[in-house]
Amino acid sequence: MTRYDLHCHSTWSDGLLAPAAVVARAAANGVDVLALTDHDETGGLAEARDAAIAAGIELVYGSELSVTWEEVTIHVIALGIDPGNSILSEGLAAIRAGRSIRARRIADALAAAGIPGAYEGAMKFVTSERLVSRTHFARFLIETGHARDMKEVFKRYLTRGKPGYAPHKWASLSDAVGWIHAAGGQAVIAHPGRYDVTANGMRTLLADFRDVGGDGLEVLSPSHTAAQFSEYATHARTFGLRASCGSDWHGPGESRLELGDLPAMPANVVPIWKDW
Ligand code: AMP
Ligand code: MN
Ligand code: MN
Ligand code: MN
Question: Is the CB of 134 under 6 A from ligand 1?
Answer without folding.
Answer: yes
